[in-house]
Each structure stands twice: as C-alpha cells, then as structure tokens.
User: Fold this.
Amino acid sequence: MEQSVDIRELNERIKNESSFVDLLTIEMNKVIVGQKHLVEGLLVGLLSDGHILLEGLPGLAKTLAINTLATIVDADFSRIQFTPDLLPADLIGTMIYSQKKEEFIMKKGPIFTNFVLADEINRAPAKVQSALLEAMQERQVTIGETTHVLDKPFLVMATQNPIEQEGTYPLPEAQVDRFMLKLVIDYPQKEEEQMIIRHNLAQSFPKASTILKPDDIIRARKVVKDVYMDEKIEKYIIDIVFSTRYPAQYNLEKYEEMISFGCSPRASINLSLAAKAYAFIKRRGYVIPEDVRAVCHDVLRHRIGLSYEADANNITTVEVINDILNTVEVP
Assistant:
C-alpha cells in the first residue's frame, strides 16, 4: 500500500514539474505546422539528454524546429552546414597564433553552444563526423593540450537527406548508435501545407516566445529520472532488445538470417530513458508499456543491422520492430 502512496505523490510531483510541456508545445506549434512526431521526438531528446538524427526530405522544417526550440529555451544555437571539404577544426575550433600576444590562443568552434544543428551530416568525411560524435558522447572537446567541457544542456540534431547518395559519406553503424533517436519525418497533410503557405505569405512570420531557461531543462532532466519504472517494464525492454540479438528465442526464427547484428546495451538504456521522458511529457509519474512502444521505433530503427538477404526480400527495420512488438509478451 505504501508503494501506491509513493506513486500517487510522485504522480502529483511529475504533474506539477511537467506543466511547462504544454506551454512549450504551444510555442512550438505557433511556428511548426503539423510534425507532431518531430516536436515530441525533440522533447524526448531534450528531456533525456539524448541526441537526435533526423531523416527527411528538404524543406520539412528541420532547421526551423531546432531554432525554435533554442528560442523557447533561451539557449545558444549554432547551425553547421556539413560539406565534403569541412575539417574537424571547423567544428571544434583550433589554436591560432596571436602576433599581439606572441602566443597561441584558442579559437572555439561552433560546437561550443547548447543546441547544434549538424545539417546534412552525411556530406562530411568520416574524420569530421567522428569529431562531432566524440563531442556528443564525451560532452567535451580537446583542442591542443586542453580539454574543454561543453555547456549544458547540449543537444545535437543531425539531419541527413535520404534521396541523394552521390557525394555523401554514410554514418558508420557503430557511430550511429550514439544518437538516442532517429526520427523519420514525412510530408505534411494538405490542410497543414495550406497553413504553411499562409504562414510564409503573412506580413510577419510567427515567432515563438522564450518561456524557459537552460537551468529549467537541467532540473526537468533530474525529475525525468525519478519517473517510476516497474521491474516488469524493465524486463519488457530487455526482451525487446534481446529479441533483436536472438530472434529464435522469441519465436522470430524468420529473422535469424535477416538480422546481421542486434541492438547494443545503449538501446536498452536509451529505450528506458526515452520511455520515462515520454511518460513525463504525458504528465505521468510512472512508465506503462504504451510509453515503451511509442518510442521503440525511434530508438531502435538505426541500431538493427539487416543482412543482404533482408535487402533482397525488401525487409525493413520498421517491419522487424513491428513484428517484435507484436510478438514479445507485454506485461
């Protein structure tokens, strides 16, 4: 009985602490038309301290979304356009010689900010991608002999264009794992596109208001970790992840030859964190199986390696995840 009282108290606390979520969503919706999934994904990433890989065609408000989020949170924002001739120093900074001081001084790169938009990450060579991914993982950058800790909150949203493959460098599978979520965004509906036209033809484009400070996000992240997760939900998450590694143990024998490698332990950690953040967004103090299912595709789609046989049979990771969710027993 005591535990249920605790959960009731926790529920009340989470309800109070998450009151800003509705305001943040309203501000985002002033500027971003439709794209509910994108806005939710950004919130999950922001609240669980995870980075986001966005795949979508040009013109789907990817840059606008993160710029708007930076405005709402009153955070610093920088956009880096990835190109084939970009160097790691263009990203993290370098040591330059000052004739006035007669010594080397550090020139910080655009990575020293709160929100980074890495536009078309797959256009830059591997060494630049590695410099970014290292900063994402370690939350620090080494220039010369000095290591600099990056500001909090630090969120990277990288975009990649799925249609152009010429002159691109695909992200290595092992490094894609550093992104907490991979969101795939699609074209808007007819009514939404009509709204987009009106917004862009109006005398002034809608602007979001600043309603939060970076410290509010840091505090909210601590509260997200307090969201209650039952042992049964933990086991459910582990079963989902293990079914990508050992499909035959979960009556998914047909994927034995289709999956070349399953999800890493980062998937279990990120699925748990994302489910807690999703429960927080829904203003609940505990995680239910629906929270796990809601974030499952975004957390796992870039972590499952498919074999040539899967390609030959037109099997996609979306199908694999759907089958896993339909087969693994829900608590």
